[in-house]
Amino acid sequence: MQMHALSIVGALGLGMLVGTSVLREETTVRTAEPAVAVEAAATQDMSPEMMRMMEAMTVAGTPGEHHRKLDALAGEWKADITMWMMPDAPAMQMVGSASQAWDFDGRFLNCAFKGDFMGQPFRGMALMGYDNVGEYYTSLWLDNSSTGMMVAKGQLSDDGKQISFSGEANCPIENGPCVNEEVLTIEGPDRWTSVMHTTRGGKRYKSMEIVYTRTKTTEANADRGAR
What is the value of pTM for the model shown? Predict the structure, then answer.
């Protein structure tokens, strides 16, 4: 859906969080099943209040147009990463790959990331979606470099080309949370970028930039939950 300077936690996850461009023609989208079958429930002996509750649950749990904004991220990606551990630190480079497909019947985009960081294998995963009730994009990220998780929220820009996210991750150096802000920009069907800023010790600085380039398109309706 971040990899801030002192820990890779969450950076790649938030970096894989949005997709606001139109899907490639070969990509197909499945209409997800409603969360609750209200029609079936209506045949049971239920009070009007219970029916209203069931209908509200159905609306809240059914993917919609905001989820479709993420369709452009389905597929295989190469990730070229530049990061800065501290405001005055030299840039560090990392190359990885990301595989993304819809899960939970089209409700969350499941991302699997692989790469190498400072000579060590790096693996991460993310779940990305849109909260119909809260009306914001969401991201959950975890990896093999930390015991913590990153949760972030984001909003789509008026022109539909960017999503701005904000989240927190515990920093081992500060021994407490640091704030990460990220702006994701879709540059085309085969390329998107993530620019991240971190606030640590009262200082805000650019901590990461990721350029994603498509290597292969997979069907957006692939469900990893079936594995």
Answer: 0.75
